[in-house]
Amino acid sequence: MKNKKKSELNYLDFIPKHNEKHTWKADENGAVTIFIENKGVFNQFAQKYFDKPEVSQVHLEEMGSFIWPLIDGERSIMVIGELVKEHFGEKAEPLYSRLVGYIQMLENNDLIEVQKVNN
After folding, report:
1. At 1, is the pLDDT very low, low, confident or very high (cuts 50, 70, 90)?
2. 74 alpha-carbon distance from chain centroid
3. Are the C-beta atoms of 48 and 67 separated by less than 8 Å?
4. What's the sign of the alpha-carbon dihedral 84, 90, 95, 99?
5. Which pTM value belongs to this model?
6. Rounded Cα gap, residues 8 and 77, in angstroms
7. What is the pLDDT of residues 13-38, one digit of tens each?
8. What angle do CA 9, 90, 94 make, to 5 degrees?
9. Which end of the chain is more exposed for a tag (fewer CB within 10 A), N or C?
10. What is the DSSP track for the chain?
11. pLDDT tens digits, 100-110
12. Residue 60 · residue 34 · CB < 8 Å
């Protein structure tokens, strides 16, 4: 689904799921950290000469940590948005434009995959 233009309205019907290449954990406060293995020749070179770590860590902020576990390959972006609205209320506004942008950013960074619902 990468690099394909999706309208925000239609995008709400899509279902995101975690990229299985990456692992993650939530701490006791619910803060999510995603672990990304840096593999390949370029990464080995960078690890050796530029002290790049073997595993990079992405620490999600409060709303991202709430959203990440909801990305389960079953819930649509619309349903995730409803849960975000219920939990964060007005703090989440403008809800769907922010949520769609966040999901697209996760997809563009290869942290998730997004698939169209088969109706």
Report:
1. very low
2. 14
3. no
4. negative
5. 0.83
6. 10
7. 999 999 999 999 999 999 999 999 98
8. 30
9. C
10. -TT----HHHHTTEEEEE-TT-EEEE-TT--EEEEEE--SHHHHHHHHHH---SEEEEE--HHHHHHGGG-SSSS-HHHHHHHHHHHHGGGG-SHHHHHHHHHHHHHHTTSEEEEE---
11. 999 999 999 99
12. yes
Residue ranges of domains in the chain = 8-112
Does 85 have pLDDT greater than 70?
A: yes
C-alpha angle 16/65/81, rounded to 5°? 50
Q: Report yes or no: 53 and 44 within 8 Å, Cβ to Cβ.
A: no
Burial of residue 57 (CB within 10 Å: 0-12, 13-18, 19+) is: exposed
